[in-house]
Design goal:
Elements lengths: L1 H23 L5 E5 L6 H17 L3 E5 L6 H8 L7 E5 L1 H4 L2 H4 L11 E15 L8 H10 L5 E4 L5 H13 L4 E4 L3 H9 L5 E5 H9 L4 E5 L25 E8 L5 H15 L2 H9 L3 E4 L2 H22 L5
Length: about 325
């Protein structure tokens, strides 16, 4: 009887305790674990958000890069962290969506993470080496079909969005492009520029800089509409690749069982940051689109992305082990 009474009292006072935690939050350093190497779009977005949260709350928000295993290394460390809001995850799509399909021995479930907010999204573009013998998406498709298994594409690793985007392209365009995985964006991009690999599906920020400098060709954009920064580049849908869309998005999540009051406070602050004109202007220079929204909207979005890209993983029989 006494044990039941203790449990009841704990249940009654738990919401009040969590509310008190949120009132005091944050009162010390918050660590954002980035599940990718420094310098990429995810890392940049996390640092912009971290700096604004530091300014808002007067507490340090530090960024720690923990790449590896397509984002699993950093993600697992956050799942096992104390659920108090002082350790957060900044992740690209793979560790939140398809990695359980890719890593059969994965020891954690990403669906247990608490969604906080989507920071940014950016469309992917078809980028080819500067001397590639095609100057349009239609010419590229014709050349690829005439040379099955002879063209290779780079990605930041197995299961990353650029990898899955190329596999989806193979499926819908009828090509046979060969995957060459790297351990980060810079290595992959450098080999495209140098001509060691033929192509890569690359997020707009990096693709635009390469295109502007004449260091690579951009043949198409994987979105429903052309980009304002590159209006002369057609969508791949225009090139005849039906309903071909691919975004790289960056999200913030928290350890399982993080109090909802803290999640709500973080979500509101991140949405506030994303609406700041100077932050929007900064993201625009990086070709990133601020997203935001509620934790529930992030949860629904991640579920939809998991279904969509899970079909690609199964169809292409992709495995990281």
């Amino acid at each position: 009887m006494l044990a039941r009474l203790v449990i009841l009292v704990c249940l009654l006072f738990a919401p009040a305790a969590h509310a008190q935690q949120a009132d005091d939050y944050p009162n010390r350093t918050v660590k954002i674990v980035v599940s990718a190497p420094a310098g990429g779009g995810l890392d940049v977005a996390a640092r912009i958000i971290a700096e604004r949260l530091r300014q808002k709350w007067g507490q340090p928000f530090i960024v720690e890069n923990r790449p590896g295993a397509s984002g699993n290394t950093g993600t697992e460390s956050v799942i096992n962290a104390e659920p108090d809001g002082y350790t957060l995850l900044a992740a690209q799509p793979a560790p939140l969506t398809v990695n359980p399909l890719l890593y059969k021995k994965q020891t954690f479930d990403p669906t247990t993470l608490e969604p906080v907010a989507i920071m940014t999204a950016v469309p992917n573009l078809l980028v080819v080496r500067p001397n590639f013998p095609a100057s349009s998406a239609q010419e590229f498709i014709a050349h690829a079909k005439a040379n099955p298994g002879k063209l290779n594409f780079a990605s930041q690793g197995i299961g990353t969005t650029p990898h899955l985007t190329a596999e989806l392209f193979n499926r819908v365009a009828g090509t046979k492009l060969v995957h060459v995985p790297y351990k980060g964006t810079s290595q992959a991009v450098n080999d495209v520029i140098a001509g060691h690999v033929d192509l890569m599906f690359l997020e707009m920020g990096n693709a635009f800089q390469l295109y502007k400098a004449g260091r690579a060709k951009v043949l198409g954009i994987a979105s429903a509409q052309r980009a304002a920064q590159m209006p002369e580049i057609p969508t791949l849908i225009e090139a005849g690749v039906t309903d071909f869309r691919s975004d790289t998005w960056n999200a913030i999540a928290a350890p399982p069982r993080t109090p909802r009051a803290i999640i709500a406070k973080l979500n509101a602050a991140i949405n506030e940051v994303l609406k700041l004109p100077e932050v929007q202007a900064h993201f625009a220079t990086l070709s990133m689109r601020p997203v935001g929204g509620t934790p529930a909207e992030m949860a629904d979005f991640v579920k939809a992305e998991t279904r969509r890209w899970g079909e690609v993983v199964r169809a292409a029989n992709i495995s990281a082990e």
